Every structure is written in C-alpha cells, then in structure tokens.
C-alpha cells in the first residue's frame, strides 16, 4: 500500500484556500498511486491556536467534514486531515477525520493531549478512547501531534489491534527529536506503521503564534523503527510504500506478546 | 557528572578473567574522571545463556556481589555490572548491582523481561517493582537489556522520580534500532538519562549462543533524546558527561506533568 503525506504551508484562517490545497494534493497523491492523503494538524484553518481562540464559531467549522468528504469522493482517494470541530459541551476540539475514496466517513478523533497554553485558550482536550477503524485491509487509528509523544495511547491502540497510526501534527522547529526518535519508537515498540504529517516550515509565519517555525520532517516509520520515508523542511508531497504488519523479521522482538501489563498495573 | 561505560568482550564462563577486566576498566574510568563504571549484562560470566543453563550453581555465583564490591572499594569508584544471581525460589536471575566507591551496595535488580527461549532455559523472570536509590545526588534505577525496550517500566520509574537509568545489555547485531531509537526515546519521553552498556562485537563468538554478534553501540541518551555519547562496534571505554535532570530547555515538553494516567487506565 502506498500513502501520501502532505507537508505544506496552510494559510491562516483561510479554509477555502486550504481546502483547495488539500484537493490539489489529493489529485497529485492519486496520480502517484497513493490510496490515502494525510494532511497536517488543523490544516483546514492553519495551526494558529491564538488566532483561532477568537475566530472559532460552530457555524464557521460546521462544514469542514462535509468538504473533506467531498474532496475524497471527487478525487477518488481516501483523505485524512486535521480541522477544528465544535464539541457537544460548547467548546472546540482539535479534530481529525478519515474519509474513504467514496467520501464515507471512516474515522473521527479528537486530540487528548493539548500542547501549551495557546491550545488551551481555544480548545478542550478529549477524554475519549481512540477508535480503530477497518480501512482497505488495515486497522487504522488517529493520534494528533503531542498525543504520539506519549507511549501510553499508541500502546493501548496496538494492544487492540491497530496497525496504522495516522498523525496530523504541527511540531516546532526546536523539536526535531519527535520525528527523529519518538515517532520511530512508537512504530518499533508496537510493531505498527506511524504516518506523521507536519506543516512545512514557513519564512513568514505569524510571530504571535506559538509555533512560528515548523520542523517539517514529516515521517513514516515502520517495523523496528525503520524510516520508510521522511520529508525535508519545505513543502513536499511525501509518497511512501508501507509494509503489511505481518512482515516482521524472523527473530524480531514481539513486544505485545512479551510485555507484562499485570505487573505494570501494580507498579503505577 | 562523568560516567564510564565498559564495552568489552567477556570470556565465556570465566568469571575470574571478567572480574579482572572490570577491575582494569574501573581503574581506567577513575583516571578519566568518571564517578561510575557500568559493565554489560551478565558480563561476569559472559552472555552465554545456553551454556549457563548447565553451568549455574548457587555456589558458583555466590561471591560475585562481594567481588564487585571489592573492586569498587579497591579502586575508589562506583561499579555497576550484570551477573547471574541465585533466587530464593531455587532458580537464577539475570541480575545487576551498583556499589558505591566505598564498596557499599546501593542497588540490586533482577531482569523482568527475559529474551527468547535461551534465557528462559537458564533464568527466571522477576516480578518485583524496580527500586530507586539515591547515589551521588542522583536517583538511580536499573533496567536490563530487553526491559528498556518496553516503555512501561521506564515510565513507572520516572513517575517515581528516577533520573538516571543504568542498563547493562547484550543486544544482537541485527537490532541497532534499540540503541539508536528506543534508548533515546526512553530518555526523551521521561526526561531522564539512560546509560546503555553493551558487549563489544566479537569475531569468534560461540555460534551456539543466541547472540553471536553483539551490536556494540553502547549509548548514553539525555534530554529530548540527545545522544550524549555512543560507542562503535568494538571494545571501548566510553566516557560521557551527563547533565542534571533540571537542565531542560525552556519550553520543552513536560511529559510527566502532561500525561493522563487516569484515562490510560480506562483504556487498557
């Protein structure tokens, strides 16, 4: 299976333009033989939590899922992307969704670990256990940005059978270790594939936002932490061939079989 | 603080020779200004679990702790090393111990995650929660080899205040990702220092043992997964300066503060 990660610059608070960019990337991804396009965290509005705190209304965000569904159906390729969503409790979530190539919603997720004071100005953290969906023969789940830096959620998903984690992200340029080390570790220790799609570094990012310079370095990591594909700093459509979960090296560690959850529970 | 990792070839089933090698390395480590020497997993007997299954007796292993204590006291430097130890239940543990520069025992540990069928022939896995000891202003704990590949134990130790994990190991040459990715991830996600000391690669390792060719690559990893020092493949005394735990970059992620254990418990 081939997947495409969209590393690009989002236009702050300009969903129309950003949805057009996702549409164009979906077309290019399909041309490259990919079955899925993954776009970064909050790409639909731009990752500008400080600005979003005053911009967000339920009306402004209501149509984002339908528009992403339309792109998937129109282009005939599965689309996963990050966007803000209204919550039942009146707040907003940093959300992600996956639509199949017919435009049907396969999976929705809301970020559990918010990053820093700025995200907390605009958003509420979810407490909900991430769902796993069947899609094109894979067991797929979401994490968003900071979520994947914690070992616990990826472990819980792997224990329930997930084999592909889609991770829209917006990671700052001082934290290269997240793509280079933590994303690879989550793949290795859980024997699954992690696709981590970041915003491209921008020369003229808004200086009052927490993440003025993104890392780029969108990454797909696989068995034993192998880097299956990694982008540079700038805009790029990263096309990566991912292996089946079954393809572990003979003699490779089987962490899910060998871990000892009953004693960990006693320790914590 | 400066520490020394001993990456060397152990002589199979020849404790006298291996203890002499630890003694010589302790002297060299002290000369280099180190406060601690860390030797690999089962270094005292060699990492030869298949051979150890028939060799081990309580009498043969009884004096190892006392001999390591004597080396520490004679050289005036703390010594941590891996050795086989008799268990209360009649079996044997893959053990590690830390003695301070006066020869007093600071910490003892028995491996929780055994690797492969060969280790299970000779050894019994421990269920005990790892202890944390105060030593030279640090909060120190052990993991042994396969233990550190699981995120759960290191997380439990970090949550209880550990800031330096000593990890004697014996990792095969097909698993470089453990030193290069997982060891760095444990340091990054828990904001502590991990010192991972492996056997040197040997050209004439016994072919009937599971790990004929070791990886080498002894590593010390620190904040944000930084490689503070890494050995090559062969014999080497790796001298590494380690930072205080307090030295986190302003704005760095605080995973222990931001993790959400109450919801992880619901998920697993």
From TrEMBL, chains A, B:
This is Carbon-nitrogen hydrolase family protein. The keyword Methyltransferase does not apply. Belongs to the carbon-nitrogen hydrolase superfamily. NIT1/NIT2 family. It holds the Pfam family CN_hydrolase. Keywords: Hydrolase. Residues 1-244 form the CN hydrolase domain. The keyword GTP-binding does not apply. GO terms for molecular function: hydrolase activity.
